[in-house]
Design goal:
CATH topology of chain B: MetI-like fold
Oligomer: heterodimer
Number of helices of chain B: 13
Number of domains of chain A: 2
Largest sheet of chain B: none
Helix content of chain B: over 70%
CATH class of chain B: Mainly Alpha
Order of helices and strands of chain B: HHHHHHHHHHHHH
Strand content of chain B: under 5%
Number of strands of chain B: 0
Bound molecules: adenosine-5'-triphosphate, magnesium ion
CATH superfamily of the largest domain in chain A: P-loop containing nucleotide triphosphate hydrolases
Largest sheet of chain A: 6 strands, mixed
Number of domains of chain B: 1
Shape of chain A: elongated
CATH topology of the largest domain in chain A: Rossmann fold
Structural class of chain A: alpha+beta
Number of strands of chain A: 20
Radius of gyration of chain A: 24 Å
Helix content of chain A: 10-25%
Number of helices of chain A: 8
């Protein structure tokens, strides 16, 4: 069953086109992450799905029902806000039950629902506190409790973790993922953190300038980015992209001094943009798959040890590239060094359309 | 502290008038208090008489009526002005067109002095020339609206004029408060299915409490020291039906030449004000301490 279907959605604020024809088909039970840089229209899209904003064009279907003219409370959705948006004058319990209060759910049923949700999220000791007496992480949980208690067809999360510190964020990330595995309700989750996107999503929609650039599972997004924007946006450090030229079975990098073998039958001779992930450039001892590694020489420009690995900036064929080597490899800045290259995961893009070839 | 000579003009401009004004207020308050314990009549000098002036003032019918009126006027004026202001603010908060124009219109009465308001309303409410005459002339000859000359209702004409003058001010403060409510809260309430009534009563207004209290306190102290509005609108009449404490003070001091008693009445007014402002000050202080500790 389709949980959410967005067709040709447009949104204009005055003369500004914020959404320019968004199409998404989301199956029931999926965990969809909407990711994109600030201002690309993620929140606007989510607000339109929730019914908090009117679209300028296009249709929204939730659970097979067209909801363009349905009030937010009747769309069978629940939303978690970046600011949590807990009602400051109400206790945690009242916050969670406010929706049921509005729908005139009897007291006994309300209490039961609160009990269930507070057990699930381990917020029982907090039920009689006010939001101002909670820590950031606790507020986050309560905000999720308020959404969970509705048992909706669709959860909408708008950057729910961005106000938490790094450690708590990792914890909550895992917890939300487990929660999804347990309850199985469809989730549309907005973030501009691509790690969150990669770790949680069943499918990722990468947005930019009000358009969906690519909608696919994390592995495809990562390994076969549909265009240069997606290639550069996903992954940290980002994918190296450099001008190159394919000719026969080879691709010549930058000034043409380095050539890599590539399986590019039928491309002929043409200019391309080559994309290569930093982890595909490693110390010479590294083995990628069964094939003998391809070794190249490059000048080391900068090294940044992170502990688990060392990020190295190097100059190859006149172009700057980033590689990731094992932490115990000794590199001297300014000197030439050898690196192993994984040629299985090279991506070629059209320099004009910026699309994957 | 090193005095920066280049900023001397600034210090002078700020501190000299401030000290003068504060000194004046404090000096006259102390002086009035002193006089209130003496037998001063026309001249501000006399013998110490203890609390005699106070017992005298409290025993006069004039003061009793003034104080009863203050209760009615204070309550009616404060509550109704706040409610009217809140109502206007909620209406304006619906993002209607022409909001700026309407806001200016509602705020405009505040720019008028109470004397102008009082005079204008004394014409409007005068049965012989105002609203009653207009409606009568339109054909409803039986229509009566003569509160201005009705002993029991006259105080309410002052309430009406007061509301007209001050509700724009309450509206402006409430509107600022409504606008500072976090938009996500409203969105959350919409998803929860709260209708407009529940949205305001359960979500928006509860976060408006500090502003409500501030508005109340300002209105209450306006009510307590009201003088010019009554002077211009009813002159305290009919008879002494619309006396307020400030008029009693004026009456004692400048009409009857009893400075001692007038001062005692003035001190009583000051105490009433303090009874309102001190708890508010303490409440604000506690709040700030709590915010600083949190
Ligand atoms: N009410 C509005 N009126 C005018 N422009 C708006 C309005 N709301 C959003 N915009 C504009 O629409 C664009 C998209 O905003 P949106 O909030 O959807 O971005 P976002 O992708 O959620 O960004 P972020 O990651 O910073 O939250 C922005 O350029 C913003 O300035
Ligand atoms: Mg946003």
């Amino acid at each position: 069953m389709s949980a959410l279907m967005i067709r040709d959605l447009h949104k204009r604020f005055g003369s500004v086109d914020v959404l320019k024809g968004v199409n998404l088909d989301i199956e029931s039970g999926e965990f969809i992450v909407l990711v994109g840089p600030s201002g690309c229209g993620k929140s606007t899209l989510l607000n339109i799905v929730a019914g908090l904003e009117k679209p300028s064009g296009g249709t929204i279907e939730i659970g097979g029902r067209m909801v363009n003219d349905v009030a937010p409370s009747d769309r069978d959705i629940a939303m978690v806000f970046q600011s949590y948006a807990l009602y400051p004058s109400m206790t945690v319990r009242q916050n969670i039950t406010f929706g049921m209060e509005c729908r005139n759910v009897p007291r006994a049923a309300r209490d039961k629902a609160v009990e269930h949700v507070s057990k699930l999220l381990q917020i029982e000791p907090l039920l009689n506190r006010k939001p101002s007496q909670l820590s950031g992480g606790q507020r986050q949980r309560v905000a999720m409790g308020r959404a969970l208690v509705r048992d909706p067809l669709l959860f909408l999360f708008d950057e729910p973790l961005s106000n938490l510190d790094a450690k708590l964020r990792v914890e909550m990330r895992a917890e939300i993922k487990q929660l999804h595995a347990r309850i199985g309700t469809t989730i549309v989750y907005v973030t501009h953190d691509q790690v969150e996107a990669m770790t949680m999503a069943t499918r990722i929609a990468v947005m930019h300038h009000g358009e969906v650039q690519q909608f696919a599972d994390p592995e495809t997004i990562y390994n076969r980015p549909a265009n240069l924007f997606v290639a550069r946006f996903m992954g940290a450090p980002p994918m190296n992209t450099l001008p190159a030229r394919v000719d026969g079975g080879r691709v010549m990098l930058g000034d043409g001094s380095v050539a890599l073998p590539i399986d590019a039958v039928g491309l002929g001779a043409r200019d391309v943009v080559l994309g290569i992930r930093p982890e595909c450039i490693a110390e010479p001892g590294r083995r990628f798959g069964d094939a003998a590694p391809l070794i190249i020489k490059a000048r080391v420009e900068m090294i940044e040890p992170t502990g688990a690995e060392t990020i190295v900036t190097l100059r190859l064929a006149g172009e700057k590239m980033i590689g990731r080597v094992a932490p115990d490899v000794r590199l001297a800045v300014g000197a030439e060094a050898e690196f192993a290259i994984d040629v299985r995961k090279l991506c070629l893009f059209d320099p004009k359309t910026e699309r994957l070839i | 502290m090193k005095l920066n000579l280049r900023r001397l003009p600034e210090y002078l401009v700020i501190w000299v008038p401030l000290l003068l004004a504060a000194g004046q207020i404090v000096t006259f308050a102390l002086w009035t208090t002193w006089i209130s314990f003496t037998s001063a009549t026309l001249m501000p000098s006399g013998d110490w008489v203890g609390l005699k002036n106070y017992t005298n003032v409290l025993a006069t019918r004039n003061w009793k009526i003034a104080f009863d009126n203050l209760l009615i006027f204070g309550f009616g004026f404060v509550v109704l002005t706040a409610l009217t202001g809140l109502f206007l603010a909620i209406l304006l908060d619906q993002r209607i067109r022409g909001e700026n124009v309407l806001r200016s219109i509602f705020l405009y009465p505040l720019a008028l002095s109470f004397v102008v308001t009082g005079t204008a309303w004394s014409w409007l409410l005068n049965p012989g020339m105002g609203v009653q005459k207009l409606v009568n002339d339109l054909g409803w000859t039986g229509f009566r609206f003569d509160w201005l000359v009705d002993r029991d209702m006259a105080i309410w004409t002052i309430v009406i004029a007061g509301i007209w003058q001050s509700s724009g001010f309450a509206m402006a403060l409430f509107l600022a408060g409504l606008r500072s409510v976090e938009p996500d809260l409203v969105k959350a309430a919409q998803i929860d299915g709260a209708g407009p009534f529940r949205l305001y009563t359960r979500v928006i207004l509860p976060s408006l409490w500090p502003i409500v209290i501030a508005v109340m306190v300002i209105l209450i102290q306006t009510a307590i020291r009201t003088f010019d509005l009554v002077r211009a609108l009813t002159g305290g009449g009919p008879g002494i039906a619309t006396q307020l404490p400030a008029l009693v003070v004026y009456d004692f001091m400048f009409q009857r030449g009893q400075l001692g008693r007038g001062s005692a009445a003035a001190v009583l007014m000051l105490l009433t004000l303090a009874a309102v402002l001190l708890p508010y000050g303490i409440w604000k202080y506690v709040q700030r301490r709590r915010a600083a500790n949190a």
